[in-house]
Amino acid sequence: MEIILGSQSPRRRELMAGLDLPFTAVTIDADEHYPAELQGGDIPYYISRAKAHAYEGKLKEDQILITADTIVWLEGQMLGKPHDEAEAYAMLRALSGKTHQVFTAVTFVQKGKAMETVVDKTDVTFCELTDEEIRHYIQKYRPFDKAGAYGVQEWIGYIACTEMKGSYFNVMGFPVHLVYKALKQML
Amino acid sequence: MEIILGSQSPRRRELMAGLDLPFTAVTIDADEHYPAELQGGDIPYYISRAKAHAYEGKLKEDQILITADTIVWLEGQMLGKPHDEAEAYAMLRALSGKTHQVFTAVTFVQKGKAMETVVDKTDVTFCELTDEEIRHYIQKYRPFDKAGAYGVQEWIGYIACTEMKGSYFNVMGFPVHLVYKALKQML
After folding, report:
1. Which end of chain A has less Cβ packing within 10 Å, N or C?
2. Across chain A, what does the average pLDDT equal?
3. Which of A162, A163, A169 minimises the CB distance to B158?
4. Would you call A177 and B160 a contact, using CB atoms and an 8 Å cutoff?
């Protein structure tokens, strides 16, 4: 079986590589809109499947496609990718001193079989951040490609993240233990 | 103030570098024996202070020395660094399917001031591992320099670690959020 990772995220590609299984990475253009009534983990569940649907027509017999989506969920609201510095600032200010959830959904597709999706959740607690800390992070690390305006593996994750419950790799965007477990059953 | 990190661990040096504060790294030779009655977090507390004592005579006025020690604690027993493949196998077999604790102590020293030590704890849950998985890891990754015979940032951490409570960086050997907090008060 050939594994195809449908993600352009360098973090996901790096984590997938760490599983010591050969794979090919592709970029999938999918519509990432979702029904407004969806909450929490149901949002990445929906989007990871939309990504899978956008590519499944190209799948061959001996291939497994893996797609994923990650969201940051704070007190009933989704934080997506910030469009500019002001939005990144507002997100990090909102996360400061609170516990939020990171949900990642991973979808597996094989030609002629039903799609399988797993969802992982991690609780992440941030300490109180000063304005200076938030501004340093945004200016130096430019987190505009990251849900919730932060990368846990970067400076802000080092200084802000006082407690986590669940998988750290899920917060990075790819719950590798669930991916490994699912692939073990499929390969 | 000049920060001196007294550790030869590449993981600690990398994590310290991620705090965006300039530092120098030195190697400290200290006696790592500890009183047999010590339990859990009191063991790295004692050893990180022994490392600090071994170097503090060399400290100058404008320097802060940071030392650290990490242990893996499973059901009332300490797992140190394995001496050979058989010992590494025994440790990973013992960790399989269970929750253990990782304790890291970090000691801060300034000339003429009282030593300060902080201790962090993370609960780490491993899934059940097969013999094949344990042997693949030991043979490919050679975890002989690692407490408990594993590196959480390596393949075994990806596949085995289903749940964590506390700081991931603490499990890597350096609770960066506590180091940052302590340095913020000292600098």
Report:
1. C
2. 97
3. A169
4. yes
Of A20, A161, A177, the CB nearest to B161: A177
Q: Which two tokens stand for residue A87?
A: 């939005």
Q: What is the pLDDT of residue A187?
A: 85
Question: Which residue numbers of A are catalytic?
Answer: 69
Q: How many domains does chain B have?
A: 1
- CB contact under 8 Å between B158 and A127, yes or no, is no
Distances (CA, A) of A110 to A2, A12, A178, A181, B159: 10, 20, 17, 16, 22
Q: Are B111 and B61 in contact (CB under 8 A)?
A: yes
pLDDT 10s digits, A1-54: 999 999 999 999 999 999 999 999 999 999 999 999 999 999 999 999 999 999
* Residue-number span of the structural domain to which A21 is assigned: 2-186
Active-site annotation holder among B69, B84, B120, B123 = B69
Cβ of A167 within 8 Å of Cβ of B164? The answer is yes
CATH of the domain at B159: 3.90.950.10
Q: Which of B15, B20, B168 has its CB closest to that of A164?
A: B168
What pLDDT band is residue B6 in, cutting at 50, 70 and 90?
Answer: very high
Confidence bin at B187 (pLDDT 50/70/90): confident
Average pLDDT rounded to a whole number, residues B61-75? 97
For testing contact with chain A, the best of B159, B163, B184 (most A CBs within 10 A): B159
